[in-house]
Each structure stands twice: as C-alpha cells, then as structure tokens.
Design brief:
By secondary structure, the chain is an alpha+beta fold. The strands form three sheets. Strands 3-4-5-6-7-8-9 form a seven-stranded mixed sheet, with helices on both faces. Strands 11-10-12-14-13 form a five-stranded mixed sheet, with helices on both faces. It is globular, with a radius of gyration of 18 Å. The longest helix has 21 residues. It has eight helices and 14 strands. The structure holds D-MYO-inositol-1-phosphate and magnesium ion. The site of magnesium ion (MG) has 5 residues, from strand 4 and helix 7. Magnesium ion binds next to strand 4 and helix 7. Its main location: cytoplasm.
Amino acid sequence: MADQWQEAYDFAVQVARAAGAVIRKAGEEEIKVQTKSCTVDLVTKTDERVEKIIIGSLKEQFGEGTHSFIGEESVSKGQPCILTDKPTWIIDPVDGTTNFVHGFPFVAVSIAFAVNKEIEFGVVYSCMEDKMYKARKGQGAFCDDEPIQVSDVKDIHKSIIICEHGTDRSPETVQKIFSTQKKILCIPVHGLRGSGTAATNMCLVACGAVEAFFEIGIHCWDIAAGAVIVREAGGLLLDVDGGPFDVMSRRMVSGNNMVIVNRIIKEIEIFDTVRDDAPIVKK
Ligand SMILES: O=P([O-])([O-])O[C@@H]1[C@H](O)[C@H](O)[C@@H](O)[C@H](O)[C@H]1O
Ligand SMILES: [Mg+2]
C-alpha cells in the first residue's frame, strides 16, 4: 500500500524550511519580547507569526476540518491541547525562543504529525545552522538527507548528557535540577551540555553527538517531532521514572540505549508538573 502520509511528510519539510527562513530574517531585525507564564518564559511576534504561517499553509494544503492542530502559541491563547485519534499536527514554531531573543544560534522549527495518538513523522529544522532533521515511522532518520544513528557508547563514563533548566525558577525545583545535574556530572560523565532547544537536543541524541537528553517541564510541541527522530535513529524514549514515554506528560528521557538511559534515570530527582492535556482550571 502506498504510504498515505508521504505527501504530508514532504510538505512538512517544505513548510519547516520556509518557516526557518522567516525566523532567520526576523532575527536580523529588532525583536520585541513579551512574557507568557512567568518572566523567563519569552514570546515574540515571530513565534506568533510563524505559527500562523505554518498552520495556515497546512490548512490550505489539507483542508480545514480533516486535521487537528496543537501549536505552542495557539495553546497559550487558550486553544485545547488534547491529542485525539484524529490526524494531528503538533507544532513549535520557534523552539528556543530565549536563544532567538539573545542571538544564541540554536533555534528550531518543530513539526510533528500524529495519527491515532502515534507520531507518524517529525521534522526539526535547525534554522540558524540550516540543518534539516526528519524521520518517518519505519523509514529511518535523516539530517540533510543523510541517514543518522545514535551513538553506540554503553559506558556512561564516556558519555555526554544534555540537560536543560526550563523556565520554573522556584527554589525547590531549581534545587532538584541542579542536584540531578551534579550527581550525573560526578558519575563522572565526559560532560553536560544544553543547546536551549529541546527539539535540537533530541536531534543531537539522534545523530550520536550526545548519548542522552532529559527534561521535566518540556511540552508536547518541544519533543513530538524529536521523539520519532530519536526512535528512527535507533534510540529510545522513556518517562523519567522509567515508565513508558507519554508525549503529553511533560517528562522525558531520550537516549541511545537502555544502559545509558537507565543509568540517568537512577539520578533524576522528579518534581511535579501539570500535564499538557490537563483540564484548564478557571480562576
Ligand atoms: O519555549 P521554547 O523556546 O519553545 O521551548 C523551550 C526549549 O525547548 C528549551 O530548551 C526547554 O528547556 C524548555 O523547556 C522549552 O520550553
Ligand atoms: Mg519549544
């Protein structure tokens, strides 16, 4: 049977590339910054504009009613964030908004497509580096059309691990994040890193530049595309407690193999987050 989502996959690559060009151009102009959930959760006109461009192009191509959309900026304006069985696009127009604002050169467009709650394909365009990562379920993962694979390192002492700090600055959470990082650093590992974009971090796992990336507090739009790219590159995803990965749970460990991932999980100090699909509590 012909791959019924091939056209959508190819189109997503085109849309991500075009969106990345808009971001690069916007980065050369003055950037007006606003905040969302807290003072370090940044948003710009470019995030909103690029999301409109992406969703507008997808609706034009595939029709209004047949597909659903979960986009970071639409959700922040009150749109539902529920993954149903319907074909659903999960979009982060600018992953790494803080990087974008500061001119730190890692910013990605992340577009995933899920059917029956399973991610069929994902595209991550690291637009400042001009690197196009993509993967389709069962067809492998690629960077600029070259196949990519996770690293074969099994010895944690020979690994690089990515961790991010997210936007929760409550002293209890920051304490847990640093305590986890300290324990991992002192295993010891070769190094800790973080690009400031979850989508790019996952692609770094997928291409074998690092062994693992974990974060609590990320959102489905940060990781949905990266999830299929990591899996298709031979890696795996788990919850931070070792249970099955759930894209809406805001918790994730991605890594090259079970040995590395299990070793990282042993050190993670878990803190509470509200699921992406939790009912909205009206204040
Ligand atoms: O807000 P945004 O720049 O799209 O996404 C953020 C980035 O992916 C960052 O690496 C991660 O640590 C945060 O948790 C995300 O929210
Ligand atoms: Mg993001």
